[in-house]
Amino acid sequence: MYNHLYVDISQCDYLVDTIPAETSVEDPVEPFYGKRKEWKKLYCQPFLDAGKTKFPARAFYFGGEKVWLDYCLYVKNR
């Protein structure tokens, strides 16, 4: 449906991707590019996983267990 909005990954020099929890299953539509050998990790920052963190912990700094992902910038290996 939105394929016309995307650039082919072979044309990219940089990529931003999240590193999912180990229990996540790779989706063929949106693979884990960061786990592929052709990409080198440059920088990562913790990113709150809103889908796995309950509301009170998302809304307030204190209370509840927060689930974090790594949000990373990758560069293509040459």
From TrEMBL:
Query: What are the entry keywords?
Result: Glycosyltransferase, Transferase
GO terms (molecular function) for this protein are: glycosyltransferase activity
Q: Which classification does the entry list for the species? A: Eukaryota, Fungi, Fungi incertae sedis, Chytridiomycota, Chytridiomycota incertae sedis
Under what name is this protein listed? Mannosyltransferase
Instruction: Report if keyword Glycosyltransferase is assigned.
Output: yes
